[in-house]
Amino acid sequence: MSVGRLLPLLLIPILLSALAAACSSSDEGDAGTSGESVAAASTDGGTGAEGEPVVYKLKQELDMNVELTSTVFTRIRRIPIEYTCTKNTRYDNDGTFRYGQEWSPPLAWDNVPEGTVSIAVIMDDPDAKLEFVDLTEPWVHWVIWGIPGDATELAEQVATTTEVLSIGPNAHQGTNDNGNVGYNGPCPPPNITTIFQRRDGHRDATTDPNQPHGYMFRVYVLDAEIDLPAGSTKYELLEAMDGHILGAGEARAEFVNKHIIK
Asked: In terms of Cα–Cα distance, which of 186, 184, 204, 202 is closest to 194?
């Protein structure tokens, strides 16, 4: 979660009221057939009466029959710093600093059901709710859909553009909770917040004992193309996909922010 950019946003009433909102009550349509294009059921663009985003919960039960993996975090779950936000730095044993570069990680999926027409991926941060009492939903980092149904992977460093023609003619990305299109890398609070030199020569440290921050990647395989405007939200995508999900898979990744401010 890009917490460095989160605190100002938490002061915005739009976000606070949106994340506390109840599930939308739009009617469910019939599940589409293979190749059909499906638009979001709501007519208000996924917003409430006063323009706030609506939190939508899937109504259909998910069959978690798809295996989702990544070559950069599957084995030990830790996300390398290159795939985190640019505010993150790490001091290596060789005396050099490494910096977050906001690359989206490579993902791959297997065991996709027959009849899959398109694929969507959502990444969010469920741990954010544990740190901020006013946050009631996971913080959204990435929303992408329209990936071709015969695709088996996403290469790293997906461009942060609304349309991603290199992936497929219908591939679009949505808006994350930082208000940007495309991928936003993890940016949790530092586990070590400050180290400073006192006047008496001693060094003090203020530490944060939190466990590694967890991030969920989910892949959804669908029986239809999803007809949504580029820049749509996670909840608009969930509503449009509801009833069309043939299967899903998830993978958890973690990041420990060891950023030190001297």
From this structure: 204
Residue 4 and residue 186 in contact, taking contact as beta carbons nearer than 8 Å = no
- The pLDDT tens digits of the residues spanning 43-60 come to 333 445 455 558 999 999
Using an 8 Å Cβ cutoff, are 73 and 212 in contact? no
Question: 189 in a domain, yes or no?
Answer: yes
Q: How far is it, in rounded angstroms, from Cα 207 to Cα 196? A: 12
Q: What is the pLDDT of residue 107?
A: 97
Query: CA–CA separation, 142 vs 215, rounded Å?
Result: 11
Q: Scanning the structure block, which residue is given the tokens 């290596």?
A: 92
Distance from the Cα of residue 139 to its chain's centroid = 7
CA max distance for the chain: 73
The parent domain of residue 110 ranges over: 3-26+34-255
Rounded to whole angstroms, how far apart are CA atoms 133 and 19?
11
Is position 47 within any domain? yes
Angstrom distance (rounded) from CA 142 to CA 223: 22
pTM above 0.70, yes or no: yes
* Phi and psi torsions of 172, nearest 5°: -135, 155
The number of folded domains in the chain is 1
CATH assignment of the domain containing 41: 3.90.280.10
Residue 261 inside a domain? The answer is no
